[in-house]
Amino acid sequence: MIKSGKITERPKRFLVYGPEGIGKSTLGSMFPGAVFFDCEEGTNELNVKRAEFSKTWEDALNFTKWLRSENFKTLVIDTFDKLEQIAVLNLCEKSGKKGIEDFGYGKGYTWQAEMISAFLAELDALRNEKGMNIVIISHSQIKKIELPEESGAFDHYELSLSKKVAPLVKEWVDAQIFINYHVEVFENSDSKKKAHGGKDHLLYTTHTAFSDAKNRFGLPQIINAGQTIDSMKVTFEEHFLPLLGSKPQIKKTPQKQKKTRKTTKQNPKETPEVKAVRKKLQEENIPEENLLKFFYEKKVLPEGEPLEKADPKALKKVVKKWVVLKGNFEKGGNNNE
């Protein structure tokens, strides 16, 4: 028998990774019916349901088996790099070794990868039998990358997992999301570089030169999740909740329409800055009214005024930061930026 078309009803597998303290656990807690296997007590300040015992490899196996008789919708493993350490400890204790290097010839790493592979199969059983989504949380690490054809090296964010385990996890998940702060580097009057920003959370959903990421759902390349938990929740409900078979429940307060004054003045001329923005909108097939709505919400432009009335500096900023900002007005604007 042959089936055609998309299979959208299957539970999803997410991997969320990034620097410490950036909000990975908070994002995981937003998944519907979530229960945590908290290996390193990173959810102490979150009001979530979690496994009572989560310190040993047996705890992990027993918890996945116990979940088969429960009705949770999402299992969040926080963090997987800590779970990998637990697996190594279990392997060494059972084999009477002090460390994984003591096995010799890389055998310890091979057996470790086999343990993780078997555990991922247990997680698949939860997906198939209980319809549970799986969210894996991990820390990131920075590695230097050198290209043979280029001189010099650059930093690259990767999973904080071992060389044999990281590929297993990356191949297994449906989406690998890298989360980091939005930072801009600029030169001051003394030609010294300084960093600016560091508050907005950016979610990268596709591979970049500086980070590993992927998704099978057609998500925007970069999603601005704002600076607060509320803005992150709005982002989750807009982009991720529909993938899980749920409809967004974003409450929108109705805005009173302001009366626009009639004027006999001619419309201002189309400046080069306006032309550049309109060209971007046409290339992305985004209605101009979406950008105007975004400008009105951010008080960049008085409501009812045309694009020609906008500050040229603001228009230049839109063109310069198009990839980051366009998600705010692709679907009519939001309040994340």
Account of the 3D structure:
The longest helix has 24 residues, at 107-130. This protein folds into two domains: 13-244, Rossmann fold, CATH 3.40.50; 255-337, no CATH class. Strands 1, 2, 3, 4, 5, 6, 7, 8, 9 and 10 form a ten-stranded mixed sheet that branches. Helix content is 33%, strand content 20%. It contains ten helices and ten strands. The chain has helices at 24-29, 57-67, 80-95, 107-130, 165-172, 229-239, 272-284, 288-297, 312-320, 322-325, and strands at 13-18, 34-38, 49-50, 74-78, 133-145, 154-159, 175-187, 193-204, 214-215, 222-224. Residues 333-337 have low confidence and may be disordered. It is an alpha/beta fold. The chain is globular, with a radius of gyration of 24 Å.
Q: How would the blueprint of this fold be written?
A:
Elements: E1 13-18, H1 24-29, E2 34-38, E3 49-50, H2 57-67, E4 74-78, H3 80-95, H4 107-130, E5 133-145, E6 154-159, H5 165-172, E7 175-187, E8 193-204, E9 214-215, E10 222-224, H6 229-239, H7 272-284, H8 288-297, H9 312-320, H10 322-325
Parallel strand pairs: 1-5, 1-7, 2-3, 2-4, 4-5
Antiparallel strand pairs: 5-6, 7-8, 7-9, 8-10
